Amino acid sequence: MTKPSDVGYRKPPETTRFKPGKSGNPRGRPKGSANLATDLSAELGEQITVREGGQARRISKQRALIKSLMAKALLGDVRATTALLALYARVITEPPENEGQPIDDDELLIIRRFGPRLLKSLGKKETRHED
Fold first, then answer.
1. Please, which residues have CB within 8 angstroms of residue 43's CB and are 6 or more apart in sequence?
2. What is the mean pLDDT of the chain?
3. Mean pLDDT for each 10-residue chunk of the chain (131 residues)?
């Protein structure tokens, strides 16, 4: 046994310490419990009803968020515009999952014109790539 003087900061009593070979979390994570990415994906995929031009439509929550962000950006909200362009830049720079097509000249021109502005608005140093 330990002496009373051996108990203190970072030295719990031996009776309450983990036993050798015994897990501190014996039951572990429950099977089938979802992680954050799974929960978020499921939530964004759920359908909701929205009104557009007097018509009720069912769209995903993800689509509704994008529409809301776009509406704010079109009204002149700078933060919404920055968020939307950053999201777009991230999406177009990710490699396509099942598409192996190269970027055409028009898309490359848009990226070259918008890229430096987007980086500047996000506070990053501008980089130039010459072909």
1. 61
2. 84
3. 73 87 82 84 94 92 95 95 92 71 80 83 62 51
What is the tens place of the pLDDT at every residue in 101-111? 677 888 888 88
| Number of other residues whose CB lies within 10 A of the CB of residue 61 | 14
Q: What is the pTM of this model?
A: 0.49
Cβ density class 64-97: b for 16+ within 10 Å, e for less: beeeebeebbeeeeeebbeebbeeebeeeeeeee
Q: Where are the domains of the chain?
A: 37-75, 77-95+103-122
